[in-house]
Amino acid sequence: MPNNRGDPEVFRNLFVSIAEEMGAVLRRTAFSANIKERRDYSCAIYDADGQTIAMGDHMPVNLGAMPLSVRHVLDTFKLRRGDVAIVNDPFRGGTHLPDLTAVSATQSGFYVANRAHHADIGGMSPGSMPLAREIYQEGLRIPPVLLMREGKVVDDVMNLILANVRTPDERRGDLLAQVMANRRGEERLSEIVSRYGISRTKKNAAALLNYSERVTRDMLRSIPNGEYHFEDFLDNDGVTPDLVCIAVCVRIKGDRAEVDFTGSSPQVAGSVNANYAIVVAAAMYCFRCLIRTDVPYNAGLLRPIKIIVPPRSVVNAGPPAAMAAGNVETSQRITDVILGALAKALPDSIPAASSGTMNNLSFGGWDSLRKRSFSYYETIAGGMGASAKNNGQSAVHTHMTNSWNTPIEAFEHEYPVQVRGYRIRSDSGGAGNRKGGDGIVRELKFLEETDVTILSDRRERGPYGLNGGASGKPGTNELTANGKTSRLAAKTRFTAPRGSVLRISTPGGGGFGKTKALK
Q1: I need a surface site. Which of 458, 489, 500, 502 has the fewest CB within 10 A?
Q2: What pLDDT score does 517 carry?
Q3: What is the number of domains present in the chain?
């Protein structure tokens, strides 16, 4: 990196440390297990034009998509100190309704924002990840609005949100945690400007963007010029049994790339529809993975990359499309196809497909012991795809998700559920010269009658192997109730009787290379 008294690298670490500290504040002040335990949130810093300067080491699917939410907020409001705008509308830069983005201005002309997944935002089923046919069924859709004005809560907005959710105390706590995270970011940015001056701070923010752009262009030059096609499928959309195609053509020419999703399925009836923000996040992640140096993760990475998404397709859906699973399931398949295409250009650099699903589980109901409603959401890890150099890791979150587990002790303390089993799913990774990582088996016993929704995929076709490696084993969902075990669909909603046991077995990763014969 060009050196002006070491400024760019110093400022890079300063900016990233602020985003990380914002995340720590959010995690420690949140009420829900989804944020404080699973760490399903992201924090970032933006310049006066809404360009990403720095991101915390949080959720890839959020970090690449958040700038569009910030842009919509800035187009709606002239934010002042003490104002906090929120938005979750997928047609205004959001991803899906449970992800609420909070945006604040700083005294120095920068912006800070965080996105947190709320365990309920209303809608037709607890957890707000339903088998919906239109977005109106998925929960409260929030355009850019002010939650805080000049440092004070806008009660009308807060009350409207709390009146539409199943767990209002938890939601209020998580929203105020988002406010406090932004406030910490504002304070730290003000300290930097006070110490180094606004001109020097802005100059170095711009230098970081330019540096990331140069490094990305250098990486693109190392990929052979050409067009690389790949397609893969989601099992179904949760409404019809039809496969949902995600197709891509990656075009490399010199120091530029074009990622074209023409040929992908039209938007569908179910909730696997994604939007442009999700595609941007996936593309940004895939190309960042090809850069060997520790490049700043900012808007400069995207400058040499053009993304083409057909209108009203499953990767660029329009109203009133249901969107809950687009952020979690379709984002993973978008990643799979981009990497699959790049594997044709760089066969020894790209791993086989990882589990390809976040195995979304949401549930809720009435806790008779604690005399309160409960609502919970989690994602479950799977196997990582193998590569030319290594076996895939087992039981890990991959690609567009980066969340933690809710500790069993915290989980059982908070909800009327027992964890009956939590183990590696042996031999679920694909065979090959390098073996795919194994998935997970998670078994939950419901202590109350519970409303359950599962949004999962890779239940029909396992994650693909590469260079002769075998596919990973597909996942399964099963419910044991009244002594009978039944197979559940990949995407389903059901009432789990008290005492029933849900078993989710997640996919293993694909293998890499043909298995070498034993001598």
Answers
A1: 489
A2: 57
A3: 2
